[in-house]
Amino acid sequence: MSGLCEGRVAIVTGAGRGIGREHALSLARHGAKVVVNDLGGNVDGSGGDLAPAQQVVDEILEMGGEAVANGDNVADWEGAQRMINTAVETFGDLHALVNNAGILRDRVLANMTEEEWDSVINVHLKGTFAPSRWAVAYWRERAKAGEPVSGRIVNTTSVSGIYGNPGQANYGAAKAGNLNSAMALIDRTFPDVEFVETRDADDEVGSTSFLRATLGQLQFDERLAYVQTIKEAQVSNGDPFNNRESMFYRGQMLTRNAVNAVFPCGSGLMWRRSALVDIGGFPTWNLVEDLQSGVEALRRGWHGLYLPIVGAVAQHSPEDLPNVYKQRGTWALDTVRLMLWGDLKGLGVRQRLHFYGMLLDYLHAFAVMVYLPCLALSLLGWTPFQASGLSYLLHIGPVVVATECWLLAVNRPYNDRRGRQRRPYLNLWRARIMWTGLAPIYAKASILAIISGPNRKPVYKVTRKENDYRWHWQQSMPQAIPIMVVSIVAIYALVNDTLPSLVLLSATLYWGALNVALLVGFVSRSWHGLQWVSRVSVRIRRSPSPGNASAG
Are the C-beta atoms of 56 and 15 separated by less than 8 Å? Predict the structure, then answer.
């Protein structure tokens, strides 16, 4: 096997399952020799079994890689040293340590025992410190001996540590400690490090030129604070929830380069360390640091850059309504809150216009919710304005044409490796389904951002890393109820002949009926992933047409 990590030796703790397992497999695919550490216990830390670690080793060996299992406890001082020794004695060196091992004991603070607190803190904090201590000691001895040293330490953290979680006070404290200790470790051990990459824990590297391309830009421009790249995602066929965001990552972000309004998106991102120091580190005023960290840098005179190469590939994307609502609602809440209450002093006019455009995108949700009542009232024969048919068309026609042409123009993703497979009109329709269906969520987030003000930070909820495939009918009611109301009104209008003239009705049908159709498409997402739905869809696609049946 060959790749980015050819000839290097890495230790991954907690690598028998979950994220750690993916770390180990990905490193092996790229040519690294891997020490797969896992105590083999349960999620709460109880028990022990070397089998999970050995299974990962077997997978690596089957793909032609090199690996060895290690069952030491990361929180045990001597066990951590044995882990480092295993790498050196087996493979002759150590180049990277990934501190991923962890346990979880969810309990609200009032019900948490001392033992539950101690066990989680012990594994996450001491289990990060102890292996790191012995790894750094090994590298220091090699450096003193005049040998070349190329060491890396990667610590896994969590949004529970950055933003908090009511049922995870112990886990959150440990993960926040990991984040802070990682930065402190860099300050003490690698004070000359100039750049810091941020990547979601389950994201794989996309383009093999990621480091070369991003670092090249940062070295070329000394005032460049960060370089953001495309974030891809593993999604279901057709990307029903628009998780790839092709129009955003492969279109709109490119336009921001022209006015220095590019902002970080969390993963596939390279930061200049001095810029992070200048803004006081990653901000915690908002729920997610991505957007605000970029604004803080830009308003201080730093530059941001967007490169249209794939820098990260998410191995999981939310594909059930509650999880989608949580993720997209957080983005909307953060954006509206920052634009209304955040400090934008220092941004230029053109920069502000780009960011205010994002604000208007979310506030447009209220307009979507107005279209449907207007449709219902028009069907009943009530229109607020009187105009001739020609005058009406002259006013509404250019708006409709301009809107549709703009959407078609921006729906041309740049550097899309799936270009030959894309169906632009269908993909645009799917994107519009999500924009329209999420209108109630965006409206709620906007109201919450307005109410919360600058000093009251809303509660953050973690995005699940697994999908809950069932019929989420309750979550689809905000979209289903307007559909039912308009349908009932339409039947009443036909029966009682209250419809307005066709010309006056045409614009209402465009704004209203179009949104009804989009909402119907969104409601169908509420049962996405159910097996019986998939079986019915397959049968429909396979069933012969009447013409083909008669011809046979």
Answer: yes
Q: Please compute the mean of the pLDDT values over residues 295-301 and round it to a whole number.
A: 96
pLDDT band at 438 (very low <50, low <70, confident <90, very high): very high
Given a contact cutoff of 8 angstroms between Cβ atoms, the answer to whether 66 and 34 are in contact is yes
**Residue linked to tokens 């250019």:** 398
Inside any domain, residue 541: no
Token reading at 205? 């590297």
Indicate which CATH number applies to the domain containing 428: 3.90.550
Are residue 90 and residue 109 in the same domain, yes or no?
yes
139 and 254 share one domain: no
Residue 283 φ/ψ, nearest 5 degrees: -70, 150
Which sequence positions are flagged as catalytic?
Answer: 171
Give the percent of the chain with pLDDT over 90.
40
Do 442 and 358 belong together in one domain?
Answer: yes
* Residue 422: pLDDT over 60: yes
**CA dihedral defined by 106, 108, 111, 114, rounded to 10 degrees?**
60
Tokens of 228: 């953001």
Spatial distance between the Cα atoms of 519 and 322, rounded to a whole number of angstroms: 17
Per DSSP, helices labelled H in 306-388 are 321-341, 349-379
Contacts for 336 with CB less than 8 Å, ≥ 6 apart: 359, 362, 363, 445, 446, 449, 450
pLDDT at 118 over 90: no
Q: Quick one: which H or E segment has residue 134?
A: helix 127-144
Split into its structural domains, the chain has a count of 2
**Final residue of a domain: which of 468, 496, 518?**
468
CATH code of residue 5: 3.40.50.720
Domain enclosing residue 357, as ranges: 194-365+388-468
Chain position carrying tokens 């998780």: 243
Q: What is the pLDDT of residue 226?
A: 97
Tell me the pairing of strands 203-205 and 303-314.
antiparallel
Same domain, 241 and 162: no
425 inside domain? yes
- Say yes or no to pLDDT of 495 above 60: yes
- Examine residue 276 and state whether it is found in any structural domain, yes or no: yes
Of 202, 270, 197, 201, the closest CA to residue 234 belongs to 202
Amino acid at 428: L
DSSP string, 488-551: HHHHHHHHHT----HHHHHHHIIIIIHHHHHHHHHHGGGGTT-HHHHHHHHHHHHSPPHHHHHH
Give phi and psi for 80, each to the nearest 5: -65, -40
Tell me, yes or no, whether 473 lies in a domain.
no
Q: Which has the higher per-residue pLDDT, 106 or 465?
A: 465
- Which is it for the CA torsion 357, 359, 361, 367, positive or negative? negative
Looking at the chain, how many residues does it have?
Answer: 552
pLDDT of residue 159: 44
Do 140 and 279 fall within a single domain? no
Which is nearest to 174 in space by CA: 160, 185, 195? Answer: 160
Q: Which is nearest to 71 in space by CA: 52, 92, 93, 96? A: 52
Which positions ≥6 away from 404 have C-beta within 8 Å?
Answer: none
Of 179, 183, 186, 357, give the one whose Cα is nearest residue 263. 357
